[in-house]
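Give me the 3D structure for K+ transport system, NAD-binding component.
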Amino acid sequence: MFKLFKSKFYIAVALLLFIFSFGIIGYRLLGNYSWVEAAYMTVITITTVGFSEVRPTDDITKIFTIVLITSSVFIVAYAISVVTEYVLSRSTLQNIKFRKMKKQVDSLNNHIIICGYGRNGMQAAKKLNAYRKSFVVIEQDEELVNKHNDEVLFVIGNANEDETLEAAGIQRAECLITTLPNDADNLFVVLSSRQLNKEIVIISRASQETSQRKLKLAGANKTIMPDKIGGDHMASLVVLPDLIEFMDQLSIDDETTINLEEVAVDNLPDGYLYKTLVDLDLRRQTGCTAIGYKQPDGKYIINPDASVQLLPNSKLMVLGQPEQIKKLNTLFQIAESTFNG
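Predicted structure for K+ transport system, NAD-binding component (341 residues):
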């Protein structure tokens, strides 16, 4: 649609340039005006401002002026209609798009809210989208929203305001990720979110180490320092390059690489509850390997022994290739959450 408006706009500009050129050249040749005088006569004629003429005109110049006025009325009217149609149609399309987006946001449940669509917010959205998670982004930069609203659901507004959080469905959300660059802003978001939803999981970005404790006291479940993680990772590539590169391979989102998956024991068939890893027999049945076990009290066991008992509210960390993970999900009737390439 906008391509059509663009072509109409170019036509309107071309016609305006033509009528101005036609008027200037006509007055120059027929009335023997100077170039400046011809341009002046053309402008006052086309715009119909009624200023006095440079000098009395003869009959030929008067006839030319009549033709110029008649032609310019239609051309200027066409140009104004094109501009008006473009502005009104763009506004209407934007309103329709945002109404549709609001309806989609209102239908979300157990979704994730991302506050801020900067570098960290974009990466979080990309990862959640890869794992087919429902999410909405709160962003107050309308230019940024207009640039990406075909890819992501947005709520335009300040994430510090309760009304904006409510518009994003904070009461129905499962998790909130705040990636704002300022720790004070993240602190306000955490406070507001925790007040509006006592059960929601809140993950907050922190720029300063001193902010981490404050954010957790305000209600954040987890705090992340991107700069610290990035610095540690780069240093580790110097100290243990091969090991770190191998670890990076585990998290690359690609169908041909290895995948990590977490499996909630509660999601396994009832017959496996209180059984052991031997009974689960992951390796033989699926090819996957259990590399970690999260106990109900939150403690982790790395490389768990085969005799570890599968308790309620615990989780298994599983390593396997995409087809093995898929086989695991199918065999134990687990909702698939791995990356969809």
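The domain at 256-331 is CATH 3.30.70.1450 (Alpha-Beta Plaits). Let me know if you want a second pass.
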